[in-house]
Amino acid sequence: MNYEFSDRLKNLQGNAIREIFKLLSQPGVISFAGGFPAKETLPVAEIKDITNRILDENGAEILQYGGTEGYYPLIESSCEYVKRDGIVATPDKTLVISGGQQGIDLTFKAFINKGDRILVENPTYLACLHILKTYEGEAIGVDSDEDGINIVDLAKKLVLYSPKILYLVPNFSNPTGKTLSVEKRQAVYELCKKHGCIILEDNPYGEIRFSGNRVPAIKSFDRDGIVIYITSFSKVISPGLRTGIAVASPEIIRKLTIGKQAADVHTASLSQAIVDRYLREGRIDPHLKEIVPVYKMKKDAMHDAIGKYMPEGIRFTDPDGGLFIFAEFARKGVNTDEIFKDVVEKTGCAYVPGSSFYADGKTFNALRLNYSNATPAEIEKGIKALGGYFTKLLED
Amino acid sequence: MNYEFSDRLKNLQGNAIREIFKLLSQPGVISFAGGFPAKETLPVAEIKDITNRILDENGAEILQYGGTEGYYPLIESSCEYVKRDGIVATPDKTLVISGGQQGIDLTFKAFINKGDRILVENPTYLACLHILKTYEGEAIGVDSDEDGINIVDLAKKLVLYSPKILYLVPNFSNPTGKTLSVEKRQAVYELCKKHGCIILEDNPYGEIRFSGNRVPAIKSFDRDGIVIYITSFSKVISPGLRTGIAVASPEIIRKLTIGKQAADVHTASLSQAIVDRYLREGRIDPHLKEIVPVYKMKKDAMHDAIGKYMPEGIRFTDPDGGLFIFAEFARKGVNTDEIFKDVVEKTGCAYVPGSSFYADGKTFNALRLNYSNATPAEIEKGIKALGGYFTKLLED
Fold this sequence. Notes:
Two copies of one chain form a homodimer.
Chain A lengths: L6 H4 L5 H8 L6 E2 L12 H20 L8 H10 L12 E4 L2 H12 L5 E5 L4 H9 L3 E5 L1 E2 L2 E2 L1 H11 L3 E4 L13 H13 L3 E6 L23 E6 L11 E4 L2 H15 L4 H12 L3 H26 L4 E3 L7 E6 L10 H8 L1 E2 L1 E2 L12 E5 L5 H20 L1
Parallel strand pairs in A: 1-13, 3-4, 3-7, 7-8, 8-9
Antiparallel strand pairs in A: 2-10, 5-6, 9-10, 11-12, 12-15, 14-15
């Protein structure tokens, strides 16, 4: 049958990263393409212990249907959790979501009509661009500096495009690893407030900080109900549980909840209860103390290998946290999409081509490297191989 | 701030049932309003045992990100599971979803543009109507007979409205409890095929059959790739796990997968692994043997109490399975929305007003009763109280 798919999906392909994952499942390939937390940081034994107690004490409730808003104990413990970002949340301002990404989907569902515009830092999280396409919205890229989004360009584009939403990952951005300075956070808030633009503040990586000082969330300045703050437990506990939190004004939370009711009724209750107990039992800080050095060690391994093996003519970011290093070739002719297959074949090593992260999909001289899902030895070996390839490429 | 919500959500309220749930949380109220499985049927001990083995044997994989298509072992065991409905599924035709309802959402996401029409049996599952509103589609009701949707009216409306989708719950429909006969299933299939209309066959209750014989799924006739079959493990294992399965042509599954990637990346892996082992270890049939008599006993209790306490002038369905009895007042003036609050106050007992289940939302003389979530004593007490109220109402 010749299916008449909807306008929103008929030309949409899978997002680049999830498609790349499939290509890379062969053994032997060193993948810097993912965004997985380091598997050695997943707290299997703790979760087993917690799950046994949940099912012993509260099994029938946890296996039954729950409310769309979320498992009430988790709503409470999440309000406590987000205090570390300077956020004052109450249950009416809080919604449990099925992973941080659902928060982006629900926000666009609640705000975006076909043709509506959003602003994103250029480059930005590719799933945000992908989700926006399913709502037939348009993403406009805003220039980015060392310390995050460029305020002059933001001011200009707020006027020029009347965007409904500004999407930002202020801590250790995906893909660049950059962090937005506190001064810029305040400036972003004031500018968006002035122009009636909602800020969607996505913070999946904030707790994975291995240098520098914590910066308060943009949401912590929010006296006007214009910021939707999303955080996820994927990088600090487990992504397989698909559990995150959105914090916004009660009116926005009610709309997100109606959207979620239609999407998946509620987040898996066992996942919610596991995250709740993990937080409530004070396990998160000792766990972070254990796992953050693992990320630091891997980032250092990649940074050192870049220094040793990468040629002049490629600029790399050096993040204070998170999972990613971003690279840009100075020479404009380099096309990281075109060389991708050849790179994988010749080096046994993969990255994500940069074009996926740009609003217009047309910047080809960049790439993203993930360091969390490889060993230091693999990182050394992989960066050496990539360095060799790129050195030759730039000599040609 | 004065939020500019999207057209799809700006006028949408929460679905009636989930709003009613909130009202009914006071202790002492006997609720026939839910659609929860009987809590005594939830296999807590088995799930605890299974979860321990999953985390011991496979913990890091299960806590890590997974593929959007689903946990591969569950895809395999689901292909085996749907054979009981006469369906031949292969992994490329199968998608794990976050509860059966997500299958409706993803189908509409893949097919429905603003203004597109779907056909539904009148009355139908209210979440289907609610989800459709989030895609700005239009639902057209088709008449219903004792044995399900009216074929003459269906044929007429396929021509009149050129619908993209026909949505049906062929086994123990929500809200009526009716089952579509095999002859009608074949007729529905042929008619929809002729008119190029996709059939969305939703089967959450099929395994909860306590009388009559199993009828093959419409999907079992599908040689043309026009049927999307959804089933859920909510009623046979646990709703809190939020896990179901969609089976459709590979081309449709690819589109649903792209939609799901944007929605929640993947279904919670621990939930998926629990369901997989439950199926793979052959636990489902012994479990059904235990739980189906519980539902039969409760349905019988409600049916008997209706015979004893309900006045003439209300017609009740008598289902062969599932969770619901549907009631219609012969007298047209009765408005089950208007009397709802008074009924709850005077009888301590709640139902779902029928209007929520009709495509036009304007049929007020009906109501839905759920029997799975009360004890036989509560059912007797509640129906007696409701019967008294309705007797008086019809005498006035």
